[in-house]
């Protein structure tokens, strides 16, 4: 009998299961676990958004829409981006709705990469970027940011581009997962000055743009519009992870081709989700504010607690993650430490090394969890430290 597995594409065969999914699944099988791994708001989707979806289900035929999304939805996306971030996209030709930013990343890379194309990837970073690059036959060029406060240093970017002048793209994500770091306009401008000297796509994942605590979010698309492919969505801003609504924006000459790839990935995203998203962006501009205020309270409690326990933490400026350097008295192997905490204390944290180069020796906490969970996590961590010290 033929071994058809070996006839799969080499790119698919080389893919490994996502460590985050495996670890989270293991954690969720443990009764009484406190799970601080998941980047998912513990808030409910606002009622007016759910009601809009319910009304659409009851009264609309809910058939296929055009691949880029309902015209009413792409219009409110354009209006939202103009109002919030001074970005100006044509809704009929420069916006494509996607099954979350996850599809947006894949579709964008599929649209631009040829075999062997290099993609610059500041690290630590969200875990899908590197395998997505490889699956699309690209070559990741990892830039370790751990020595520059987890921001891409302009001098390092210049040196990297000098060594890789034909790089096809760079992926930026800010506010950042896993570190919570973001950029001010003054910090972005030197990067822009360098990137505009090269024919390079800037793939800017700004899914946490509404969760910027210390400064108003500035989009790379505002500073470098002709080179930027903007990715965003409603999962984090409106607690709509399960609705799977994202969008890609960029110059029309680029987006017309991205649309053609998107059409083959999915005919169109879920119609009820589109009605929900339309309501969220048209009438829920401030829905994020109470969640954001609560996240800041949780962040401050977690920061104080971890600092008292000996972890070195830079105060996150956005998103809802804390990337903590392991206290010196503990096992510095982040993967082993995470396994020990799970087994002994029923506390689930993600090893920093899951997020790539520069992450070893750290653990990531998600403070999208409740305040009760955060306080419980600190108690269990304290108990563990007392046992091993």
UniProtKB/TrEMBL annotation:
One of its GO terms (biological process) is amino acid metabolic process. InterPro entries: Aminotransferase_I/II_large, AspAT/PAT-like, NHTrfase_class1_PyrdxlP-BS, PyrdxlP-dep_Trfase, PyrdxlP-dep_Trfase_major, PyrdxlP-dep_Trfase_small. It comes from the Bacteria. Pfam families: Aminotran_1_2. One of its GO terms (molecular function) is transaminase activity. Its cofactor is pyridoxal 5'-phosphate. Keywords: Aminotransferase, Pyridoxal phosphate, Transferase. Its EC number is 2.6.1.-. Residues 32-373 form the Aminotransferase class I/classII large domain. Belongs to the class-I pyridoxal-phosphate-dependent aminotransferase family. This is Aminotransferase. It comes from Bombilactobacillus mellis.
């Amino acid at each position: 009998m033929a071994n058809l597995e070996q006839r799969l594409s080499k790119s698919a065969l080389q893919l490994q299961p996502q460590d985050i999914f495996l670890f989270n699944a293991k954690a969720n099988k443990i009764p009484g676990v406190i799970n601080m791994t998941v980047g998912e708001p513990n808030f409910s989707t606002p009622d007016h958004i759910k009601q809009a979806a319910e009304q659409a289900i009851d009264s609309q035929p809910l058939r296929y829409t055009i691949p880029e999304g309902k015209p009413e939805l792409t219009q409110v996306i354009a209006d939202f981006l103009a109002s919030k971030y001074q970005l100006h996209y044509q809704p009929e030709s420069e916006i494509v709705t996607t099954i979350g930013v996850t599809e947006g990343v894949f579709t964008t890379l599929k649209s631009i990469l040829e075999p062997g194309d290099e993609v610059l990837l500041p690290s630590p970073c969200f875990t899908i970027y590197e395998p997505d690059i490889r699956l699309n036959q690209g070559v990741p060029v990892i830039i370790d940011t751990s020595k520059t406060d987890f921001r891409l240093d302009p001098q390092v970017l210049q040196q990297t581009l000098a060594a890789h002048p034909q790089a096809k793209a760079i992926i930026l994500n800010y506010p950042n997962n896993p570190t919570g770091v973001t950029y001010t306009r003054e910090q972005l401008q030197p990067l822009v000055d360098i990137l505009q000297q090269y024919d390079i796509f800037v793939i800017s994942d700004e899914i946490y743009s509404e969760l910027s605590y210390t400064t108003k979010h500035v989009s790379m698309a505002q500073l470098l519009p002709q080179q930027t492919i903007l990715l965003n969505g409603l999962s984090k801003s409106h607690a709509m992870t399960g609705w799977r609504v994202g969008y890609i924006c960029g110059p029309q000459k680029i987006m017309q081709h991205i649309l053609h790839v998107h059409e083959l990935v999915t005919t169109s995203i879920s119609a009820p989700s589109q009605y929900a998203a339309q309501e969220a962006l048209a009438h829920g501009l401030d829905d994020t504010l109470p969640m954001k205020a609560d996240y800041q309270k949780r962040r401050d409690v977690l920061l104080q607690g971890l600092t008292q326990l000996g972890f070195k933490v830079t105060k996150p400026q956005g998103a809802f993650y804390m990337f903590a350097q392991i206290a010196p008295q503990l096992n510095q192997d982040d993967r082993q430490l995470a396994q020990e905490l799970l087994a002994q204390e029923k506390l689930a944290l993600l090893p920093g090394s899951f997020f790539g180069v520069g992450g070893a020796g750290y653990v990531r906490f998600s403070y999208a969890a409740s305040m009760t969970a955060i306080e419980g996590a600190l108690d269990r961590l304290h108990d563990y430290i007392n046992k091993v010290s």
